[in-house]
Amino acid sequence: MTFNPFSLEDKRILVTGASSGIGRxxxxxxxxxxxxxxxxxxxxxxxxxxxxQMGEGSHQIHPADLLDEQSLDRLAQATGVLHxxxxxxxxxxxxxxxxxxxxxxxxxxxxxxxxxxxxxxxLLAKRAIAPGGSIVFIGSIASEIGxxxxxxxxxxxxxxxxxxRSLAQEVAKQxxxxxxxxxxxxxxPLLEQLGTSGANLDSLVSLGPLGLGEPEDxxxxxxxxxxxxxxxxxxxxxxxxxxxxxxxxx
Length: 250
Fold this sequence. Notes:
Layout: E1 12-16, H1 21-32, E2 36-40, H2 44-52, E3 60-61, H3 69-78, E4 82-87, H4 102-125, E5 129-138, H5 142-145, H6 151-170, E6 177-183, H7 189-196, H8 201-205, H9 215-226, E7 237-240, H10 246-249
Parallel strand pairs: 1-2, 1-4, 2-3, 4-5, 5-6, 6-7
């Protein structure tokens, strides 16, 4: 049998935010490549909907509140040994800088920054990530371009990138990798929510040569970083945005 470096056969992958959007599609994509997937999120019914779309396999559901540290510890205890971890859970709200509150900071940073760091810490403390494993953080091009009224969201994603690169150095002795995927504008319920709250999405999407992305585009990138094809890739930031940010960087 020919070795396929992109296969996820015999790998156990935990995906947060698996109840919808990018997280759901990553879970489906991992299952399609042969992985056993552990799904987590707050809504058990929506997680079950994801599992129904994944086909055969002994996939598991472990609901968790990512804003509760004890819930994160219980999740880390329940997962068993993992070969991959994808932090796909996230929230975004349009709030002008002058209206930022402590509550807004706690809510957005709690899900987008604190939760992935604390969950990863708990898993590493329990030696639940196997040597040679892969940790994938879903970032955002917002950390680079800083869209209006997204200071907390963009700042949290920028902090996530820095944290991931530091983490990657600490776990390198176990050959564990840590990378960040930074998507652009992707067709998800989260993006639709931003559109209804005042974001001028049409004008933004038109700036990208390839237009709006789909969850499958990000899921394919996640599968790549979870697979042995990237065993020599760590501390990387992979931008997948249809060419949106290239003119800005030039």
